[in-house]
Amino acid sequence: PMLIALVNGAAPLCISLLIITPLWLASAGVSLPLPPLYAAIAVALLSVFLLGAFLGRVAGISWLHSGLRTLLIALATAALIYLFA
After folding, report:
1. pLDDT attached to residue 85
2. 23 phi and psi angles, rounded to 5 deg
3. pTM for this entry
């Protein structure tokens, strides 16, 4: 149970740290090609696409189709959250 709890807690933590990296870099004075919030959104969407592509590859289906489908689901979820918030 401890190992499962560690993995289930570490995976979202690592992804969250990756997504907020552009915000940290901007506050540290590093110039980014995009505004920090847009860069963080781009990193989040890219990571969701890559997760879908990986799942498609593991499942033996088209990685591109699976990645795009996962990305569309994430965008729809974000739109619903924005609509109701």
Report:
1. 85
2. -70, -40
3. 0.85
Query: Model confidence over 36-70: pLDDT tens digits?
Result: 999 999 999 999 999 999 999 999 999 999 999 99
Contact 67, 52 (CB under 8 A): yes
In the structure encoding, which two tokens stand for residue 10, read together? 């570490």
Strands (E) located in 1-85: none
Cα gap 34→32, rounded to integer Å? 5
Q: What is the dihedral of CA 33, 37, 40, 46, to 10 degrees?
A: -80
**Residue 73 per-residue DSSP state:** H
**CB distance 66 to 54 below 8 Å:** no
* Coil/strand/helix, residue 29: coil
Residue matched to tokens 């996962």:
70
